[in-house]
Amino acid sequence: MKMITNMEKLKTLLESRGLKPTFQRLTVLEYLEKHECHHPTAEMIYEALIARIPTISITTVYNTLSAFLEKGIISAETITGTEVRYDFAPVPHHHFLCTKCGKIYDVKIKCPLGNDMKNTIDGHHIHEIHGYFKGICRECSNKKSGKQK
Ligand SMILES: [Zn+2]
Ligand SMILES: [Zn+2]
Questions:
Q1: Residue 16 has pLDDT above 90, yes or no
Q2: What three-state secondary structure class fits 46?
Q3: Is the pLDDT of residue 21 over 90?
Q4: pLDDT category of residue 32 using cuts at 50, 70 and 90
Q5: Which CATH architecture has domain 1-90?
Q6: Cα dist from 74 to 24, 63, 67, whole Å
Q7: Sorting pLDDT into bands at 50, 70 and 90, what band is 108?
Q8: Per-residue pLDDT tens for 48-78?
Q9: Ligand 1 center–CA 83 separation, angstroms
Q10: Of 16, 41, 59, 146, which shows the fewest CB atoms inside 10 Å?
Q11: DSSP for 55-91?
Q12: DSSP symbol at 113
């Protein structure tokens, strides 16, 4: 029952943004929701879903993701500089990239500009703020200092 409820929730979300809740869209969205902290690429989503939906193509995945992006359901992060990582994020947040293991973490910091969309810089109106942090994550730091179990 729990899964149906979740699917219903995602279905309602798609409909509220004017997107037809097709099976493929729902499956891609469900994957993003469940793997939120991994921030997958389109290729990762495709590789993961091909087993469940043999008819899915990489083009379908790209088209689905761009429809979600356009409607503001997901966001795209270019933190690594070489690839686009997708994020199902109802609330804007900042990211930390570990340069050692490549994992992307969500970080909750209080941004001085916050969500105040009335802010302007040199007369330009701010709609989105993307903050990236890079370094060595806590897991990799622990391994390095020999704390690994
Ligand atoms: Zn790491
Ligand atoms: Zn994120």
A1: yes
A2: helix
A3: yes
A4: very high
A5: Orthogonal Bundle (1.10)
A6: 16, 13, 9
A7: confident
A8: 999 889 999 999 999 999 999 999 899 898 8
A9: 18
A10: 146
A11: T--HHHHHHHHHHHHHTTSSEEE-TTSSS-EEE--SS
A12: S
Which ligand is closest in space to the CA of residue 100?
Answer: 1
Nearest ligand, measured from the Cα of 143: 1
pTM of the shown model: 0.78
Distance CA 36, CA 146 (A): 29
91-149, CATH topology level: Dna Ligase; domain 1 (3.30.1490)
Q: How far is CA 117 from CA 68, 98, 109, 121, 123, in A?
A: 22, 30, 17, 11, 13
Domain borders along the chain are 1-90, 91-149
Tell me the one-letter amino acid at 42.
A
Q: Which two tokens stand for residue 83?
A: 């690839």
Separation of CA 76 and ligand 2 centre (Å): 9
Distances (CA, A) of 13 to 31, 91, 103: 15, 14, 28
77-93 confidence digits (pLDDT tens): 888 889 999 998 767 78
Single-letter residue type at 116: D
- Residue 37 is predicted with a pLDDT of 64
CA 88–ligand 2 middle distance (angstroms): 7
